[in-house]
Specification:
The protein is of the alpha/beta class and 216 residues long. The protein has one domain: TIM Barrel (Alpha-Beta Barrel), CATH 3.20.20.70. The radius of gyration is 19 Å and the shape is globular. It starts with a strand and ends in a 5-residue tail after the last helix. It binds erythose-4-phosphate.
Length: 216
């Protein structure tokens, strides 16, 4: 499974990219606003920090302006994936951009039928929002499983990008349900490496090494 980092904070992206564990980045208008930096400037910098796809989202809601904003974003760097909302106009814009070989990430997906439409519209990625479904007591993982079945039934190449990931458990369950990608906040990615028994075991090994004079 690929890991994208879900942030517009370039310092955090740089730190994680250097580990070699990150395959791309996703942003959204809220994350860009939080960075406090101009949109194009921050996307351009992020695109230089990874060779993988960097999702940059339009803010228009009508077909023509979404296509125009999508082209502007795609011109920033070769690895931009234009993020479009899962609306009727968003699906039309997805098809128009995909036909021009521009990668599209269709976002704000909350149902399997929405995901089916996004695949038919030529999306490179579909982003089901796990955490926001959990917030309203709907099992987000069931949605990932449903989309996996539908895409496999028809050999759609659209990648399932599990989004709105809030916990290590979300990452594990997304991987088990067959998501192609998980986009994960930096603190959650770092937390995946932690286990209290790892810490305890390491402390015991180091104490024994010191006691026994073990040196490498
Ligand atoms: C990523 O593409 C999404 O914008 C992001 O994962 C949303 O996460 P949230 O629901 O925690 O805001």
């Amino acid at each position: 499974m690929k890991f994208f980092v879900d942030t517009a904070d370039t310092a955090e992206i740089k730190e994680l990219a250097e580990t070699g564990l990150i395959d791309g980045v996703t942003t959204n208008p809220s994350l860009v606003a939080k960075s406090g930096r101009p949109f194009k400037e921050v996307i351009e910098e992020i695109c230089g920090l990874t060779n993988g796809p960097v999702s940059a989202e339009v803010v228009a809601t009508d077909f023509e302006t979404m296509v125009s904003e999508g082209k502007t974003l795609a011109a920033i760097a070769d690895n931009v994936a234009v993020k479009l909302p899962l609306t009727w106009d968003g699906l039309r814009a997805c098809r128009a951009l995909a036909d021009q070989d521009i990668a599209v990430n269709v976002t704000l997906c909350f149902s399997a039928n929405q995901a089916l439409l996004a695949a038919k519209a030529g999306a490179a990625f579909i982003s089901p929002f796990i955490g926001r479904l959990d917030d309203i007591n709907i099992d987000g993982m069931e949605l990932i499983s449903e989309i996996r079945i539908i895409y496999d039934n028809y050999l759609f190449e659209t990648e399932i990008l599990a989004a709105s990931i809030r916990s290590a458990n979300h990452v594990k369950l997304s991987a088990m349900a067959g998501a192609d990608v998980a986009t994960v906040p930096p603190n959650v990615i770092k937390g995946l490496a932690s286990h209290p028994l790892t810490d305890k075991g390491l402390a015991a090994f180091l104490a024994d090494a010191e006691k026994g004079g073990v040196k490498v």
